[in-house]
Amino acid sequence: MPQFLKDFFNRNGTGMGLAILGLVLFWTIGLIILPQLSMLDFSFRPNLPPPEIGGPKDVYTLENYKYLIYGPEGGSQDYNTVDLRVFFRTLVAAVCVTIFNLIICYPIAYYLGQSEGSHIRIFAIMLIIPYWINEILRAFALRIIFGETGVLNTLFMGLGIWDTPFDFIRNDIALYAGLGYAYILLMIFPMYNVIESLDKNQIEAARDLGAPWWRIHWRVVIPYAKPGISSGCTMVFMLSAGALAAPQILGGPSSLWFTQLIYQQFNDNNDWPQGAAYAIVLLVTCILFVLAMMRLFKVNMGDIGK
Amino acid sequence: MSAGVGVDLENLWIRFGDFVAVRDANVNINGGDFFSFLGPSGCGKTTILRAVSGFLEPSEGNVLIGGKNMRGIGPNKRPTALIFQNLALFPLMKVWENITFSMEIKGASSAERRKRADELLDMIALPEQGDKLPSELSGGQRQRVAIARALCAEPDVLLLDEPLSALDLKLRQHMRTELREIQKRVGITFIYITHDQGEALTMSDNIAVMRAGVIDQIANGKTIYNDPNTAFAASFVGENNVFRGKVKQVMGNEALIATNRSGDLVARISTTNQGKMKEGDDAMMFVRPEAFAIAPDGASGDHFVTARVNHEEFEGNAFNIFTEGEGGKEIKVSIPNHGQSFDDHTGQNITLEYETHNAVIVPAGELAAE
C-alpha cells in the first residue's frame, strides 16, 4: 500500500477510510467516468433501430464526426456550414461572456476582498440569494426585462430615447446578459477568495512608491489574483459553452447555441450517437482551448483548484 | 542624494470616531536626523507615521515636510518612503523588480533599472541576488531589500514601522548598526517607529516618547534615559525603581521626598520640572538598578535604603540583586561585573546607597505597564 494511503487510513480509521474512499471512487468512476465513456462509445456507432443493436451493422464508425464537418452525404454543400458556424459562434460567444463577466466581477471581487466590515457579509448574501431562484425562472425574468414591451423598452421609450421597441432578443443582448448573469458568482468567489488573502500592505507599499491605482492592479493585485481569475474564467467559459436553458429561453429565433443542436439530436431526432459525437467535440474543444489559454497565461493546473 | 529635509508636526490631532489616537502632537524633526517614536503598542506612534506618509489625513493640525504643508497630498505624491512592519515585498516580483518598482512607475527602461538595482544590491551587501524571489531570501536579507526598495524611490524622508520586530535578537542587533550606517551614508531623514527602547536609544539622534496618544518627551537618548520628565518616560525607557511619596522640601534643584515605605530620600528634580514642584505635591522618585551600590552596614541618611535580599542572579556583565525593602517594596539592584569577588547576600539585610544626582524626581503619574 503506498504511503499516502496508509496515512489516509491511519488518520480516518479503516472503516471511515474505506467509506470515504468508496464514495469518492463511486462519484468519480460511477457517476462521471463511466457515463462519459459510454457517450464516447455511442459517438462512434451508427444510429440503429433497437433490434439491430449488437447486430452485424453495429460497427465502429467515424460517420457522426464526419457529419459535423461535411454534413449529410449527398447534401448540397461541401461542408456542414450551418452546424460549424453554430459551433464556432458558440465558442466565440462563450469567450465574450467570460471576458465580459471578468470585467464586471473583478472590481466587485476586489471590493469584497479588500474592504472590512459586516456590510461585506450582507453584500455576499445579496449576491447569493438570487441563485435560490431556479435558472429557468431567472431566464424568463430577464425575458420580461428585455422583451419588446418589457421594462427596458417601456422605460426608454417613455423617456423618449428611442421610438420603436429595440429587439434585445433578436440582437442577442438578452442572451449575453442572461449567460453573464447566470455565472457571476462562479467568477466572483474564486477571485474574492484569493484577493481576500492579499496583504493590504502590498497595496499600500505600491501606492507609497508612487504607483497610480491602475498600476497597483496591473502589477500587484492581478498577478496575485491570477489563480482565482483563471479558476473563475475556466468555470464561466465551460458552463457558458455548455449552457442550454439561457440560449433556449433568451436566444433569438435565429441564434442557435451548439448545445441546442446537441439537444435536438438527442431529443428531436432521437439520434443519440450523433448527439454524443457533437457533445464530445464540444467538450474536447473546450478543454483544449482552456489548456491553451492556461499555457498562454502561464497558469498551473494546481492554481485552478484555488 | 537630497539631504536634510525636516518634518514638522503642528498641533496634530488624529481621531477615529470618539477615540483620540494622537493628541496635539508638536514635533520638529531636523533634516538628516534619525528620529524615533518610542512607545508601547497602541500609543499612536504608527498613526503618526501613517499621517506623515499620507495614508491618513490628520483630523486637525498639519504635517510639514521640508516646510511644505502635506494636506491633501496622497502617499504616492509625497517625498516619503515607508518600510512596513512586515516589509510588504511583492512576492511575485524578483528582487531587482521589487527594488526598482518606483523607477518602473516613472517609466525607466529595464536596463536602467537593472543598473540601479545592482548598485543598491551592492550597497546592502547582497550582490548577485537580484534574480531571486523574496521568498528565497532570509529574513535579514529581505529586510535589506525592503530598505533598498524604499531608498530607490529617492525619498527625502524614510519612514520605518518597526521593521526589525520580526527578526531574531542577534540579527536585530546587527541590523540596528546597519540601519544607522545606511542612514549616515544616504544622509536623509529617518523616522523610526518602535516599542523597543534599546533600538531607539542605540540608533536615534532624537526620540519622542509616546503614551496613549500624547508625546511625553522629545530629547536625545541620553537625556531621555538620565533626565526623564514624566513617570511614564522614566519607567518605560530602561529599568527603573520607583519610590512614591510627597515632596517634603524643595532645595534648589533637589528635593526631599517623604516616600511611602522607604523613609525620607533626596534626589534631583528632573530638568523640565525644576521650579514647578512644591511641597506637598505627589511625586515619584526613580533610581536605576545600576545607580545603587551596596553601602557599609549601619550607614543611614537621606540617600540610603535598607532592604532584604530575596535572590540574586549573575547575568554576565552584572550581578542582579532582587531585594525587598520595607513594606514589601521590590528594589532591583545591578552591580557591574568587573571581576570582583561577590558574596551571596540571599536572605541578608543590606543597605543600598545612591548618589543624589543619579536619582530623579518627577510629578506622580502613570507608569508604563510591565
> Largest sheet of chain B, described in full?
6 strands, mixed
**Low-confidence blocks of residues of chain B:** none
Query: Strand share of the residues of chain A?
Result: under 5%
Shape of chain A: globular
Q: Give the overall average pLDDT of chain A.
A: 88
Task: Kindly report the name of the CATH homologous superfamily of chain A.
Answer: MetI-like
User: Mind telling me the CATH class of chain A?
Assistant: Mainly Alpha
Q: Structural class, judged by helices and strands of chain A?
A: mainly alpha
SS element count, helices of chain B: 9
The beta-strand count of chain B equals: 20
CATH architecture of chain A: Orthogonal Bundle
Strand content of chain B: 25-35%
> For the CA atoms, what is the radius of gyration of chain B?
24 Å
CATH topology of the largest domain in chain B: Rossmann fold
CATH H-tier superfamily of the largest domain in chain B: P-loop containing nucleotide triphosphate hydrolases
Largest interface: A-B, 17 and 27 residues
What is the compact description of this entry?
The complex is a heterodimer of chains A (306) and B (370). Chain A is an all-alpha fold and 306 residues long.
Relevant terms:
heterodimer; A: mainly alpha; MetI-like fold; 15 helices; B: 370 residues; alpha+beta; Rossmann fold; 2 domains; globular
Description:
The complex is a heterodimer of chains A (306) and B (370). With 306 residues, chain A is mainly α. Chain A has a single domain (63-304), classed as Orthogonal Bundle (MetI-like fold), CATH 1.10.3720.10. Chain A has 15 helices and no strands. Chain A has helices at 3-12, 14-43, 63-70, 81-114, 119-128, 135-146, 151-158, 173-182, 184-196, 200-208, 213-241, 245-250, 258-268, 272-296, 301-304. In chain A, α11 (213-241) packs antiparallel against α14 (272-296). The radius of gyration of chain A is 24 Å and the shape is globular. Chain A starts with a helix and ends with a helix. The mean pLDDT of chain A is 88. In chain B, the strands form 4 sheets. In chain B, strands 6-7-8-3-9-10 form a 6-stranded mixed sheet, sandwiched between helices. The radius of gyration of chain B is 24 Å and the shape is globular. Chain B is 23% helix and 35% strand. Chain B has 2 domains: 7-226, P-loop containing nucleotide triphosphate hydrolases (Rossmann fold); 231-363, OB fold (Dihydrolipoamide Acetyltransferase, E2P) (Beta Barrel), CATH 2.40.50.140. Chain B is α+β, with helices and mostly antiparallel strands and 370 residues long. In chain B, β11 (241-251) and β12 form a beta hairpin. The two termini of chain B are 42 Å apart. Chain B contains 9 helices and 20 strands. The model of chain B has no long low-confidence stretch (mean pLDDT 90). Chain A binds chain B through residues 199, 201-202, 204-212, 215, 219-220, 223-224, and chain B through 53-55, 74-77, 80-82, 84-86, 88-93, 101-102, 104-106, 149-150, 153.
